[in-house]
Predict the 3D structure of the following.
Amino acid sequence: MNFSPPKGTDDIFPPASRAWRRALMIWESLAERYGYDLVIGPVFESTEIFARGVGESTEVVQKQMYTFEDKGGRSLTLRPEGTASVVRAYLGSGVQGEVKLAYSGPMFRYERPQAGRRRQFYQTGVEYLATAAPDADAEVIEIGYRFLEEVGFDEVEVALNSIGDGECRPAYLAVLRAYLNDKRGTLCDDSVRTLETNPLRVLDCKVCAPHLTDAPNAVDFLCDACRLHFDAVQVRLGNTGIPFRLEPRLVRGLDYYTRTAFEYIATGFDAAQNAVGGGGRYDGLAETLGGSAVPGVGLAMGIDRILLAAGEDGSDIVPLDLFVVVASPERRETAARFVSDLRRAGVRVDMAPQQRSVKSQFRAADRRKAAGVAIIGDEWDQGRVIVRNLATSTQTEISVEEAAEWAKSNR
Ligand code: AMP
């Protein structure tokens, strides 16, 4: 029996998982502060949700989906991203009007695995639905930036672009197509195939893009409405102190984007996978899925890549407030009850799973980086317990009722 996880997937095991837990807690707190309610959806969807939503000609749909038929003959796909599912859920919910939703969970893409490019990876994201206002774009961009800040990045750049909408994009695409046709001989087979149907994809092709530096840019073809929108996003970002860099080549790999497209680049990290998150506006997605016109904007942050770039190995153990040392076997039930009560009172506390020598229990307290130790001995019969602060080695006797406060005060 081989105990490795499947190719391109990882066991996020302690100590690495500690950094994950911390990042996910930061994310939850941030999403709540910005007013994004949680949405939890299935990890698989009807294949057509992604085929239509993400786009038939994208690399994700063409090559990377985990698609299977279930026992009822339905074609299902493990979600390669979150937005199409969230928009499908919104349309199905019957909810009307603006909604701010946050999600997180594993996504699946059949990629060539490498560091920061996995077949199962974890995204956290938000979707601000049913608003076309540029303020929403700026808010979403800000959340991702603040998340990276709180996780501990100090070198992050927001790359920002506008790729226009149904009004101005056709004219741009015609010019781009003509340009690409001239370059046809230098393009890879995939790009030649998508050139007619979806020329924007060619700009996103890892092989061809470096040779297309003089390609026309969408931002130079924006209609007045798209230009105003783009300007307003930039003004708001400036006001809220989010540093950004205009990146006219940024097109992103999914078809549903309109107008704003952005990416977070961890500039201090020189690996190939330094795009740690990204997103954009997708005003046509709901209609593409067969629903009413619901504009929206969202982002997805890649947790695997963020922690890789942050160099987080999770080796910082979450310290205990208290380790309970049991002096003799007949005190174990009392001690277990004490630990249970302290946990309910919000104390991070633990005890050994079976009776060991007092010395060995003290060693365990050290290993767990406990700030203090409480010794359950004969004093218990008087409602008292001996506590020791392990940093200062000071020892006192306190009443059992004072123990929770004492433990928390050592944090
Ligand atoms: P996307 O859904 O392609 O816009 O990607 C958004 C973010 O998800 C990226 O910036 C990455 O951080 C992360 N991501 C996308 N694909 C992968 C992958 N295969 N492995 C790890 N992280 C990924």
Notes: The longest strand covers residues 99-108. Residues 81, 109, 111, 116-118, 121, 123, 253, 275-278, 300, 302, 304-305 surround adenosine monophosphate (CB under 6 Å).
